[in-house]
Amino acid sequence: MKVIAEYLWMDGVKPTAGIRGKPRILELKDGITIDTLTSSEGLSHIPIWGFDGSSTEQATGDKSDCVLKPVRVYLDPIRTTANPKYTSILVVNEVMLVPGNVPHPSNTRAALRALAEEFKDQEFWFGLEQEYTFLRADTGRPAGFPEKGFPAQQGPYYCAVGADRISGREIMEKHLFVCLDAKLLIAGGNSEVMPGQWEWQMGNGTPTSDPLRVADDSLVARYLIARIAEQYGVVASFAAKPEKDWNGAGMHTNFSTKEMRATDVHFPLIIDRLRANHDAHIAVYGDGIQQRLTGIHETASYKEFSAGVSDRGASIRIPWQVAVDHKGYLEDRRPCANADPYVVEAMVMKTVMGK
Known about the structure:
By secondary structure, this protein is an alpha+beta fold.
């Protein structure tokens, strides 16, 4: 049986790593189903592979081989729709050094994997609110912006309806459907405050929203939106500040532990730890964070830490329902849209646990 496997990995480009992918045709035994491949058993059927690391800023030309180690398998909804005759899958990989036993320095998933194991008794759940902006590939300007000048200022575009307010809905809708087909933990989406700007939410507030699953699903969702946008001649950009005088794009990070979901007794301690480590978080929360976190456009300043109930202009927002219930989760509003989800989640876990 022929299976088309798209191997996905994070490259080593600085300051913002991107997603790379290439297909491999696998010959598997007849009778292996997509349910088998996407189950815990599936990885046993997917071989390790390799790539030219000198072309992804992960190796030098004289020692260019890097190893792709499969870690999670998904249905490939794009190829499956294009040609259902073949079984098509997406394979998330960790990048390893030859021969495949040691994580590559660019492999940020490995660090999160270690923390997830160390703190598994804490039962961390994550939810990532991924904002992104559709940019015209020919001009680089946001979809919905006129050829010259600017549209009316923000206000009419958030969660809006109508061709005078919305650009890119067809792409967003297709992305929503393929994420569901791939069984990602997508929980919803909405248009944002700038024309051509959207958001999806990854993580469903259940035990399946563990750190590795949510970060892996986010990687796949980023790949899928880029693939769909290709067909429309637009770029799904994760730039932190695509337009100077408009809201930037973030990846607001909701997090909780088993204890946080039972009581808020330790919330002050957690917030104090986040305050004490503010600069360390800012340093790894994405390229362009100084341009985005200015203290205006619904952001706190990157120069100082703040927290508040229902405060969208704070570093850490305490949802009003959490304040009422005295239990739940916190929202870190500092990460940029282009931040590495593995790095962000790892940083939150370390700080919350006082590590």
